[in-house]
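TL;DR need structure tokens for one chain.
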Amino acid sequence: MTEPTSERKTTFTLEMTSPDQARGKRTHVPGLEIRRVQIPCPEFSWFLHEAVGTEYRWGGREDWGRRQWTQRVQRPEMETWVGYLSGTPAGYYELERQPDGSVRILHFGLMPAFVGKGLGGRLLTEAVDRAWAIGAVRVWVRTCSHDHPHALSNYLARGFTLVGQTQGPANRARRSALFGGRDDGPAE
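>> reply
TL;DR here they are.
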């Protein structure tokens, strides 16, 4: 039997209600290409979610199989965009059009090897621009205290406003399914 935990997380809801609020970071990053995933591919979406989200305790999909992933990525209101640096996936974002006309940045993040290289602000700028381009009446996102320490400040720096904050139970830490669940640290 596992011991109950008192660990908590803080969840932050942020929004933009006008494209005029956006403060983009448009620095040139040599070798960076941002491309939409044109053909929904559940395996690729699973890989991105696993590679980016495990360290930050992204939860709720650990038990999903091919059917759930296929249903998710084939929904017409979903868009997945991947940032490639010199041909290598460096990070991604998913946009989800909502029934109220808003667009949610459902997932956003970088692969561990690309954190701290100045890509986060640029990729987030592209996500926000795309959300407005597809007709958003509001762009919003949720992040939490499990995310990268600079996640909240990146959202605020790009022009998002904090509109909600809640406390709740922490997501459980988990092992990545990548590398057979063996995480023996970074390569030397």
